[in-house]
Amino acid sequence: MGNKKITKPTDLFGAEIHLHERALTIGPKHIWMLAHLEEFTLEKLKKIYFSLTGIKISKPQNKAGYCTLIAYILSFDTQNQFDEFFSTLLQLVQEAVRLTVFTDYLLTAPLEKQYGVTLRVKNQHSYYYGEVEFEPAVRMDLFTLVDTQFIELPALFRKVFSSWLPKPKNFFLNPCEASLEASLEAPLEATWSNVTELADSLPLLLEASLPFIKKNDRYMTVKKGLIKSDLKKLRALSGQKEFPLGTPSGVDPINLALRVILCLFATIPKRPADIDTWVRTLIRRFLLDESVYIGQSKSLDYLSGGLLEHLALTDHLGVNHPHQIPDSFIAPQSRLQLKTFLSGMAKSGQWYEVENMRASLEAQGIPFMFSSLSYESWNLKLKGEVLDLGNYVFKSHYGEEFSVYGPLRDQLLRMPLLRAYFYMLSVFGVVEIIEKEGAVPLTRNGKRISISPYDALTHARVTAYGRWCLGLSETKPKRTVEEFEAIADSELLLVTFRGKSLERRLFLEQIGEKMGDERFRVSEASFIRDCSTKAEIESLIQRFKKLIDAEPSPRWEELFATIRSRAGLFSRPTECYVFTLPADPRIRQIFTEDVRLRTLVIRAEGSRIVIDRDDYKRLVKILTEYGFSTPLG
To answer: Which of 452, 556, 590, 625 makes the best surface tag, with the fewest CB within 10 Å?
Structure first.
C-alpha cells in the first residue's frame, strides 16, 4: 500500500483549522457552566461543539457528555490559554463574538457582506415551513437566531468570552467631562432642579391635592394622572414649576409626584410636619431599603411592586391583555440596578449621560426589568407603523404595533424607564437633570413622534440633598431661612407682602388681586373665586389667620362675616312651574278671589304665575273645581 496522504482540516475559506490542543481540564470554578449547558438540546450541543472545534465526533455522545466536553473547552485559567483557543475559531466567528459579547443583538447583514457568506439556510428537516438555521459551514451555532436580521450570543457564552476579551469604553459607567454645563446650548438644552423649591412646594402640593385625588379616584390618578385643568389649579396652589421640555411632551412634575406617592403609600398622605424626612422615607421605600420595612409587610397595598413602573412610568406602552398585571415583584430588578447607579453617581457628584448607563447595562449583560421577561416581551406593545433607529428601520406587525421584544426592547423599554426614573427622582430633589430636544424616530398615523414622553432627558447628577436621602451622607444640607413680612391693613382690604414665602405669596394670589410688587387687594369676589363649598370658604378664612394675620381687624372680620352669610344662599334652588295666563278677566278673578290659590301662587311679570313643584297636585285639584280638566293642556 502506498502512503496515504493526510488532509489537514480547513475552514470554508480554505484556511487550516488549528485544533484546540490544550489539555482538557475543568476546575471547580467552571462547574457552573454544566448547569447552563444542560438547558440546550442535544442537537444544539452537537452544533455548539462543532462551532468551537470544527470537529464532528464520530463516537456517539449523550447530552451529559457534550456538556462536559464543551465545559472543558471553555475552561481557561490564564489569558494565554484563552488566546490560544480563540485563535482556533473561524475569523468570521471571532469577529461575531467580538461584536456581540458586549451587546445584546447583532445585525447580520454587514457581517455577511464583509465575509461574503450567507449565515442562514432553510432547515430541510423541519416540520415548520420556512424555519431556518445557521449554514453549518460557517460554524455560527454558538449564537442564536433572533429573526431574519439579528443574532444574539447566549448569556453563558457572553459571560465566558467577556471575561477575557478587551472591554469597551462604555463597559463601566463613567462621568461626563467637567465642562458639560458650559457646553449647554440654550434653549435646546436646559438644566432643571427642584431642590430649592421642594421644601415649600411639595407640602403645599400634598395639602392641596387631596380633593383632586378623591374626585379622580386613587387608582385612576396613578394610571392616567390628573387632567390639565386640575394640574393648572394645583400648580397655582403649590407653586410647582414645570419641566422646560418634558412638560410639553407629556411629563408633568405634579402628575409624576402624585402617581409615585400613591403607589408607595397605602393611604393618601397628608401634609407632613417634616417634609425632608418624609421625602427620605419615600425614596428609601422606592429603592426598597430593608430598614424602611422593619416590622411590616413589604407589600404595602395593591399598588406595590412593579405596578408603579407598569402604571406610572411606562404608560407610553399599551398592553395586549388590559386586565393582566405584571408579576408582583417585591423588588423590581430595575430599581435595584438604579440604586447601584445612584450610589456610584453620588460618590463622584458629577453629571452622567443616561445613554452611557444604557450602554453599560448592555455591555455587562445586566437585565433591566420591572417584571418578568416573558410578561414584558409578550404583553407590552408600542403603537406605530415605522421605527427608524438609524442603523436599521423596523416595520411594525400588521402596520399597527411593535412588541417589546428582542432588538427593540432596549429602545422601547430600557431607555424610557431609565429616563422616567430620573425624571421622578428630580421631582423629589434627589437628582438634577438636563433636557434636550430629542429625535422623533417613531411614525404613528403618518406623523413622526418620540418613542416616549421621557425622551428629552439626557443627563442626571445626584445632589447633596440626594446623597442624604439615599443614606450616603449623614449631613442634611441646610436650607436658607426665608424672611418675610405680611401686613393686613386695618381699614382697607389690602395686604402688603415683602420678602420670600412661597406659601404666603401663592395664598395672596389665590384670594386677591396683585397691585404692584408688594400689595394685594382683596374683595368678596376675589376671596371666594376658587371656592365651591362653605367648607372651602371657612378653610381660606382660617388660612388667612394662620398665614397673614392671627387677629384680623374689624374690617377684615366684617368681610369674613359677609362672605359666610352669603355662602350657599343660592346653592339649592326650588323647582317650580311657570304658567302664562290668557287675557281673560274671569280667570284672573279666580286666582285673585280664591284664598286657596292665593296661598299657592306667586305672581310674576308678564301675566305669569309661579307654582312650587310640590304644590302642583293641589293646584290641579282646585282648578278642576272651576272646570279646568287639563291645566297643562
So the answer is: 625
